[in-house]
Amino acid sequence: MERFTLSLPSAPCARADAAAALCGVVSSGNLEILVDRGSMADRCDIEVNTSAHGFRDTWEAVLTDAIARHAAGGLALAINDAGATPAVVSLRLDQALEALEDRA
Amino acid sequence: MSRLQRHSWFEADARARIAGLVDADSFRELCGPHERLTSPHLAVLDLPVAFDDGVVVGEATLDGRPVLVGAQQGEFNGGAVGEIHGAKLRGLFERARRTRPAAVLLAIDSGGVRLHEANAGLIAISELMRALLAARADGIPVYGLIGGSCGAFGGMGIVARLCDALVMSEEGRLGLSGPEVIETVKGVDEFDSKDRALVWRVTGGKLRRSLGDATTLVDDDIAAFRDAARSLLARPVPARDLAALDADQFALAQRAARHADARDGLDVWRALGLPDPTAIPMLDAADFNRLLAPLSPTEAA
């Protein structure tokens, strides 16, 4: 497993205080994203646990891109990954973050 | 209902199955993913963990009556039972003895013990069995639902048959050793696990219903599973005295003798005198149940 954490700037999420969600399932080529309340209103804290070694640069690019598309400030994301492709990761991030925005 | 309006149980994950099974918005998860009760064994092996360890447990209502619900996540390690996973289910049955719900509903989707966890997994599943039987002995009915891609095999196959009643779809499978295991140990002549049609004729819901292992056969539709669970909930708690056990044992012995030479579900359907056995795998649940009705006094209302 490769593990790392990131803290990325993002517009504040209106629902950050009540954030609690889980999306996706840990299975081959898939991942789960747990959404909780984060520590800073204008940043998104991200913890990645992935079975694929050596792809940190790709992860950072996909995460930065997704966080820029959404208001994810004040959220903490924890990811358990079993070898999902960047496209799948990106879709799951959209799914997790849009679910919060829909309920805003 | 048309196929287009159906929401497949097979395709849904554990949370979607629960959401469609119980009263809307009534489910309250216990030991949920935010508590991060993950497997210490998978972590030691440097393998991916899941925040819910592949099982969702909690309480809800069905038709307004309190129920406890557990649902295995077949996609995570084949729904296999590890130490945490098993402890969550065991805890569900122990809770049932305290809170006395109208039933415990168990959505099984599992190949059995999680082999990575070895003895801890085996102990977990035996504790689960003991807790399930203790809840039943306390008068709480336990109903199993099988319709996921992993079916119910190994220890979870045993757990399935410890339930008071089982709802299955044809897609769901029930057995002890899985087809690949049997082929590996006994050879392809014994069981060709690549022959998908054969695998389903031997382990699928229709054969299990025909043999009396499953109480109800439904289509692969979340609403159909819900309706079947509601029917089970509405009936009296099944008898579990010595006379009922003796009757079960007698029926099983008769069944074993009657179908001793069967090699295929087709042989069983022929022996039962059902017309056109080769057409049975393709029937929908309603047509199949009509066919079976004259033979099945144990069918739930």
Description:
The complex is a heterodimer of chains A (104) and B (301). Chain A has 104 residues and is α+β, with helices and mostly antiparallel strands. Chain A is built from two helices and five strands. Chain A has helices spanning 56-69, 86-102; strands at residues 2-9, 21-23, 31-37, 43-50, 75-81. Chain A has a five-stranded mixed beta sheet, with helices on one face. In chain B, strands 1-2-3-4-5-6-7 form a seven-stranded mixed beta sheet, sandwiched between helices. In chain B, β5 (142-146), α5 (155-162) and β6 (165-169) form a beta-alpha-beta unit. Chain B is globular. With 301 residues, chain B is an alpha/beta fold. The A-B interface holds A 1, 20, 22, 25-27, 30, 32, 34, 36, 49-51, 78, 80-82 and B 13, 15, 32-34, 36, 46-52, 73, 75-76.
Write the layout of secondary structure elements.
The complex is a heterodimer of chains A (104) and B (301).
Chain A: E1 2-9, E2 21-23, E3 31-37, E4 43-50, H1 56-69, E5 75-81, H2 86-102
Parallel strand pairs in A: 4-5
Antiparallel strand pairs in A: 1-4, 2-3, 3-5
Helix pairs in contact in A: 1-2
Chain B: H1 14-21, E1 28-30, H2 40-44, E2 55-62, E3 65-72, H3 83-99, E4 103-108, H4 118-137, E5 142-146, H5 155-162, E6 165-169, H6 179-186, H7 196-203, H8 205-210, E7 216-218, H9 222-234, H10 242-258, H11 265-271, H12 285-292
Parallel strand pairs in B: 3-4, 4-5, 5-6, 6-7
Antiparallel strand pairs in B: 1-2, 2-3
Helix pairs in contact in B: 3-4, 4-5
Radius of gyration of chain B (CA) equals: 19 Å
Query: Percent of residues of chain A in helical segments?
Result: 25-40%
- Low-confidence segments of chain A: none
How many beta-strand segments of chain A?
5
Calculate the mean pLDDT score of chain A and round it: 94
Number of helices of chain A: 2
Major β-sheet annotation of chain B? 7 strands, mixed
With strands numbered from the N-terminus, the spatial order across the biggest sheet of chain A is: 1-4-5-3-2
The residue ranges of chain B in which pLDDT falls below 50 over 5 or more consecutive positions are none
The separation of the N and C termini of chain B measures 20 Å
- Sheet with the most strands, sense and barrel status of chain A: 5 strands, mixed
Largest interface: A-B, 17 and 16 residues
Mean pLDDT of chain B: 95
Helix residue percentage of chain B: 40-55%
